[in-house]
Specification:
Strand content: 5-15%
Order of helices and strands: HHHHHEEEEHEHEHH
Number of strands: 6
Structural class: alpha/beta
Length: about 325
């Protein structure tokens, strides 16, 4: 697809959705009309998330490109600082756009969702001194495909088995995966509750995270209330807690030291195949949208950047389906 067709398609879709869903909620009654409409700002911001095949490689780069080469698309393109401010003010609109796409794309035949956590490194661990960094607050965590140590935050995400992102939340890197899932499930019911099941030993009780943001991005409950997860979400008490309080079934592989529970290798392989949906989604978000290199200067900017990446990812699936391409062929779109 050539860039002109891509920008036109993206703008028309966003403007139609914004006019129908958001125009009345964000009506301006005072002050002069903005130079760029919200639809134009969202179009540039979402297009700037692509890192494969485009003439820009960063959010700063897309602004420079539009100022230099994109005047026929956006004659009143803003300066970078003003543009970034407008984008951050629209973060909630971006989250609602991502959720609207999720409702449109999810298949009624898919009866489960897959959840997992993704590291969001803020910097190299070599730059951290005495548990602090000069620019970004964070904590140490372990995760990812290599299970290495990193400094920053983590992202919990829920996707359908056909790779559509339905919800996500950001929390500290050191927080247990099960606490993050507790936050996601409870936030989807409309009230964040970080109550954990009572452990065998009182000193093993998990401490609640210092922040969980943004609750708006958690999404709506799964129609079937079934989630597939890896061993990091294992635990009989946790699974019983989720089922009793929320009616949610969280299915995981049994741990190897679980007494009286044996899962044949063929079943483990089948289960891991079902969970591959979230791993593939993380791979696309990392390689095409560079979600692990956010380089935020504020929590506000971090949330906005993740919201843009997830919304653009879902829109990419919609575009691929309209063009008769595989759902996850984002990297070869241009």
């Amino acid at each position: 697809m050539d860039l002109d067709t891509f920008m036109t398609t993206l703008y028309v879709w966003i403007d139609d959705w914004y006019t129908e869903e958001m125009a009345e909620e964000i009506s301006r009654t005072k002050g002069p009309a903005p130079k760029m409409s919200d639809s134009e700002v969202l179009t540039v911001a979402m297009a700037g998330q692509w890192r494969c095949g485009t003439p820009w490689s960063s959010e700063r780069g897309v602004v420079r490109y539009m100022q230099r080469e994109g005047k026929h698309w956006f004659p009143t393109m803003l300066e970078r600082s003003r543009f970034n401010e407008r984008v951050r003010c629209l973060w909630a609109v971006v989250v609602k756009l991502q959720q609207a796409l999720a409702r449109k794309l999810r298949s009624s035949r898919k009866v489960e969702e897959v959840v997992d956590c993704l590291p969001l490194p803020s910097c190299s661990t070599a730059q951290v001194r005495e548990g602090r960094h000069w620019l970004w607050w964070g904590t140490y965590g372990h995760g990812g495909n290599h299970g290495g140590r990193y400094w920053g935050d983590q992202l919990i995400m829920s996707v359908t088995s056909d790779h559509v992102i339905t919800g996500w939340l950001i929390g500290p890197a050191h927080v247990d995966d099960r606490v993050m899932l507790q936050a996601l499930i409870s936030a989807r019911t409309g009230s964040l509750d970080l109550t954990t099941p009572k452990p065998w030993r009182p000193w093993r009780r998990l401490t609640p995270p210092s922040f969980i943001l943004p609750l708006l991005a958690a999404g709506s409950p799964s129609p079937t209330q079934a989630y597939l997860a890896d061993k990091g979400f294992n635990g009989y008490r946790w699974q019983q807690h989720w089922y009793q309080h929320y009616g949610v079934s969280v299915l995981t592989e049994p741990s190897r030291n679980a007494k009286g529970v044996v899962m044949p290798y063929s079943w483990r392989r089948w289960f891991r195949g079902l969970r591959q949906a979230v791993e593939t989604t993380f791979s696309v978000l990392t390689t095409v949208f560079s979600i692990k290199n956010l380089n935020p200067h504020s929590r506000w900017g971090q949330i906005t950047r993740v919201a843009l990446a997830t919304a653009t990812y879902n829109w990419g699936i919609w575009l691929n389906r309209r063009m008769g391409r595989p759902d996850l062929s984002h990297a070869s779109l241009f």
